[in-house]
# Entry
Amino acid sequence: MSNPNRPEFAPNAACRLKDVMRLTGLSRSTIYGRLKKTSSQYDPTFPKPFPLYGGTQLRGAKGWRLHDIDAWLNAQSAKQ
# Structure
């Protein structure tokens, strides 16, 4: 049975920001806070995005690997 709140992806699929927000329950600003080293919300274990359209700079479209998001969520639930 599939979860209606979870989009269907291949295991190694690239998720966009909206999908990461839906999967984690975090807002856009919280996600970027988890990624920014100078933020009080910084989390070095939060999955890093990668550019979807080549290049090394994270300008433009970004993606997160679904398996990285799943692993992070599992680690968070294991802490509780």
